[in-house]
Write a structure and sequence with these properties.
Blueprint lengths: L1 E5 L5 H14 L8 H5 L3 H10 L2 E8 L2 E11 L8 E9 L8 H15 L4 E7 L3 H9 L3 E9 L2 E12 L2
Parallel strand pairs: 4-5
Antiparallel strand pairs: 1-2, 2-3, 3-4, 5-7, 6-7
């Protein structure tokens, strides 16, 4: 069973630990780097949680539950005011293809709808086939926008968008 939980700024250690784990596991999937984010202090992690919503996916099991995924939603600089942007989506390799990614993006879409957004967008590395399949199943479509991946400029990422109207 997977539960989705919206975190608050007192959950900064959860976000830090999962985010650093994600960067170790999938360093080529993100615009940031492990070295950069390992240097963040508590204040930075709390600021992230205060400035945008973060969700985790938890899998129940003895003796409790553990986090198997993470995502955040922002208003991306340069985007229209009615667009919300999914960032940092990651699912633990042992939990992939079990619905956690879908559940996390569903939480983002619900929050975007609650904010009267017209679209949800995201950037994805063009060679991340599993993510591309997930986004396609959920109705995200390519916008045609491309850019070098900030953490790996020799690779490209494309922008995808889901229309909510």
């Amino acid at each position: 069973m997977t539960d989705i939980e919206l975190l608050g700024d007192d959950d900064w250690e959860v976000v830090r630990d999962v985010r650093l784990h994600a960067l170790r596991d999938s360093p080529l999937a993100f615009g940031s780097t492990l070295a950069r984010e390992e240097g963040f202090r508590e204040q930075h992690w709390r600021m992230r949680l205060r400035s945008s919503p973060w969700w985790v996916a938890r899998r129940a099991g003895p003796p409790g539950s553990h986090v198997i995924g993470l995502v955040s939603m922002i208003s991306e600089p340069g985007s229209t005011s009615d667009d919300r942007h999914a960032v940092g989506l990651w699912v633990d390799p042992g939990a992939r293809r079990e619905g956690a990614g879908t559940a996390l993006l569903t939480a983002v879409v619900a929050a975007a709808r609650a904010e009267q957004a017209r679209t949800v967008s995201l950037w994805v590395a063009e060679d991340n086939d599993a993510a591309l399949r997930l986004y396609g199943r959920l109705g995200f479509e390519p916008t045609g926008e491309r850019q070098p991946l900030p953490s790996s400029p020799g690779r490209a990422e494309s922008r995808y968008e889901l229309r909510l109207d």
